[in-house]
Amino acid sequence: MRNAGWMIGLLLIGQMAAGVDVTIEKQAEGKVSVNLADIRAQGEPGALFVQTLQGNLNRSGWFHVVAAGAGVSVSGTAGRDGSDRFRASGEVAWSGGRFRWDHSGDIGDVRRQAHLLADEMVRRVLGRRGMAASRIAMVGRVNGVTEIYISDADGGSMFRLTQDGTLSLTPKWEPTGKGLFYTGYLRGYPGVYHIDLERNRRRLVAGYPGLNTGAVVSPDGQHIALVLSRTGNPELYVKNLATERLVRLTYTPHAVEASPSWSPDGRQIVYVSDSTGMPQLYVIGVDRREPRRLTFRNRENVSPNWGPDGRIVHATRVGAGYQLAITDSSTGEMTQITDGPATHEEPTWAPNARHIACVQVENYRSRIVILDTMGDPPIPLHTLSGDWMTPNWSVW
Amino acid sequence: MMKHYGSWLVIMCATVVLTSGCAGFRGRRSKAVGDQPWDVYPEAVGDDLIMGGARFEESREPLRDVRFENVLFGFDSFQVPAAERPKVEEVARYLQGNPDLVVVVEGHCDERGSREYNLSLGEQRALAVRAYLINLGISPDRIQTVSYGKERPIDPGHNEAAWRLNRRSEFVIYR
What we know:
The structure holds two protein chains of two kinds. Chain A is mainly β. Chain A has helices spanning 4-16, 43-59, 110-126, and strands at 32-41, 63-66, 72-80, 85-94, 97-106, 135-142, 145-152, 159-160, 168-173, 179-184, 191-196, 201-206, 212-217, 223-228, 235-240, 246-248, 257-262, 268-273, 280-285, 292-293, 301-306, 311-318, 321-328, 334-336, 343-349, 355-362, 365-372, 379-380, 387-393. Chain A contains three helices and 29 strands. In chain A, strand 14 and strand 15 (235-240) form a beta hairpin. The longest helix of chain A is centred in the N-terminal third of the chain and has 17 residues, at 43-59. The two termini of chain A are 31 Å apart. By secondary structure, chain B is an alpha+beta fold. Chain B has helices at 2-20, 56-59, 85-97, 115-135, 160-166; strands at 71-72, 102-108, 143-149, 168-174. Chain B has a four-stranded mixed beta sheet. Chain B starts with a helix and ends with a strand. The interface between A and B is large, with 56 and 56 residues.
């Protein structure tokens, strides 16, 4: 295998936890080259398939699409199959093996077939988890109206989910990706709502007096952690979605809690509390409810997101703004991963535990960018006008 | 019983913080508490401040022409400053004179700080105003709260003058 060197190279780069303004040399080096020239693309659907696949492979961080002479070659056909169907099939071959692929679906769903092949290539060729078929929910403020939007991981296929004309905040996917929870003001107060994307249904999950927000689903899909102020102060709770039983986790009459995120095993929750006077990260067991302060460096640590490999990414106060840091959930060791004049906040891990989507604020305009913890340069998720905030990357 | 358990947890938490905290944080509280009941809110009343019943937004009508001055807050603070208390007292007098009316206290923040944390902080500000109204004799079931975090600034500027006006509580009377 002529790519014996790339794996070691990537491991070394991975150790460096590169940041946005840190340029990693040998960037294209250490990537597996892929040639798509042998896919016969028929018509517009075929071209869209190849174009989407190329973007996905380049964004995956592992591949580099080239015009000729590659380590991995993809051959086959892609095009319309009957009047309303699309089909793409062929073979992926490299020095370490080969596999046949065959993806078909609705003609309006061409991009999804390309996402699935890209993820299959990451898995079969490299033994890694891809992220091309995952999606990103986000908040968009366009012409002063704040709604929830959803796009594919490459920023394409964007659509607006809510159209309430009020305020819609903090979208969080459920593990299956079939729905999400968010905080909406459609009844005049912040309530936690669930949207079932398959049935196109919405229901109020928490509408207690006071604050209802931050709802995030446990990895098993059975519970939500959320912040409620029904007892007279914002506190962290866990609600069983089947029985509706509510368990209060924090008792901090002088402090507020915010931003819960579950550990991958569902046994702990990382959250923000200002019980020392400034917002810092804490970890609490769902069964043994003793909070443990996790972060001690910097004046503020907020917006934690517990990643699939156990690392917590969050925003940390640096100067007048925020930058991102990764904190080890057991040792509390913190590594700052972004820098520069722009502020970076509200991070969310991709399901591949390598990429991070976050908000980049510059000159009071906010957009969503995709960062690579292994050194590829940041890419804007999309370039639509408006302010874009609070991305949440699906876990499936 | 629940409350007792809660206090124990708070002590546990404080112990963890004090024993493992770095020197820069130990004993420093930007949210220092004073000696008035509404300063130490909500510990003074604790779980007695539970909000119950139907949300006013769904069960009543707002009286938009009844306006009160906004209560302003310090940076990252939920205490009602002494100079701002007369504004709350004015609302209390109005509610005492109109026993059929109720109030929703809004909580707002300036643009600094994370979006989600500011939702909680805004709520804490609204609840502090609520606690003071209760302290002034208004029944708890006549006061509800809504936090808008940093989502609804009244001054769009990015400077201290704007931030000062945006860290606020607003009052909406319902009938």
